[in-house]
Amino acid sequence: MSAEDLEKYETEMELQLYREYRDVVGLFTYVVETERRFYLTNSVDLQVRSADNGEIFFEVTMQDAWVWDMYRPARFVKNVRVVTFKDVNVEELAKSDFELPSDQ
Question: pTM for this structure?
């Protein structure tokens, strides 16, 4: 497989992922961003924890989430638990956020 073929494949996968996102975003209430993933979910619990050495970390729990990851064969996940020392962003989607441009 040439580099051009690989790039074409990845571009097509990204487009397919965007289309899936566009189709499912209206089903969810929250967007959760971590350093590694982007999630859509209706149920999110963010807890700030302290390690034994005094460092602060975040524990995020989600149920029935959709994951932005083009390499996953199934992007719907029943339960997600993320533990991270990095930033976590949780946003509630406004209804106007659901209006995406059409393919035309």
Answer: 0.80
Q: Are the CB atoms for 80 and 62 separated by under 8 Å?
A: yes
pLDDT at 98 over 70: no
State the first-to-last Cα distance of the chain, in angstroms, to the nearest integer. Answer: 32
Distance in angstroms (rounded) separating the CA atoms of residues 47 and 82: 10
Q: How many other CB atoms are there within 10 angstroms of residue 62's CB atom?
A: 24
**Backbone torsions φ then ψ of 18, nearest 5 degrees:** -60, -45
User: Radius of gyration of the chain from Cα atoms?
Assistant: 16
**Neighbour-count burial of 40, counting CB atoms closer than 10 A to its CB (0-12 exposed, 13-18 middle, 19+ buried):** buried
Query: pLDDT tens for residues 20-79?
Result: 999 999 999 999 999 999 999 999 999 999 989 999 999 999 999 999 998 888 899 999
Burial class (CB in 10 A: 0-12, 13-18, 19+), 61: middle
